[in-house]
Amino acid sequence: MAISMGKTGSSSISDPNMTPMIDVLLVLLVIFILVQMNLQRAFDIQLPVDKDNPNQVQSDNIIMEVGADGSVRINTQAVQPAALGEFLTQIYKDRPSKIIFVKASADAAYGRVIEYIDIARDSGVTVIGAVLTPTLPTAAPPGD
After folding, report:
1. What 3-state class would DSSP assign to 17?
2. Cβ atoms 101, 131 nearer than 8 A
3. Helical (H) or strand (E) element with 28
4. CA distances for 93 relative to 37, 81, 131, angstroms
5. pLDDT tens digits for 72-126?
């Protein structure tokens, strides 16, 4: 804040006008809020329920296991990759829920797993869930 001392000093007072800066700040704040809301994405995934729970009813989930060598197992039954589409079509023909869970080996080729998922989608599967296995060793309980 400047004070004018009669006619001896400069009569112009230069104060910064804060109103335009605050307006720009508020517009940028609104833009960042809108961008942040649009960046939030969701990935729907269904994981199988723990089998160790005795209160759980028998599950009829279908699990497709992909081995490191490209082999495929459907609920522990080995299936030839060439016959996978036909096998899955027969399974999902009369099922009301079109869900499959994919469990891939850590050494399985990514392209092969995606190829099998595409075959499953072509066979009538609408929801694909992932079966995750822990990659880190579990820690020993304290006191051991």
Report:
1. coil
2. yes
3. helix 18-39
4. 40, 19, 23
5. 999 888 999 889 999 999 988 888 888 888 998 888 888 898 899 899 888 888 8
Token pair of 140 as six digits:
């020993």
* The pair of three-digit structure tokens given for residue 67, joined into one six-digit string: 């081995």
Residue the block writes with tokens 């497709």: 64
Residue 56: half-sphere exposure toward Cβ, Cα within 13 Å: 10
Place of tokens 């197992």: 73
- CATH number, domain 63-130, options 3.40.630.10, 3.30.420.270, 2.30.42.10, 3.40.50.1100: 3.30.420.270
Q: How far apart are CA 129 and CA 62, in angstroms?
A: 10
Residue 97 CA, chain-centre distance (Å), reads 21
Phi and psi at residue 59, to the nearest 5°: -95, 150
Contact (Cβ atoms closer than 8 angstroms) between residue 1 and residue 15 = yes
Q: What order of strands is seen across the sheet that includes strand 72-74?
A: 77-79, 72-74, 63-66, 99-104, 127-130
Q: Where are the beta strands (DSSP E) in the chain?
A: 63-66, 72-74, 77-79, 99-104, 127-130
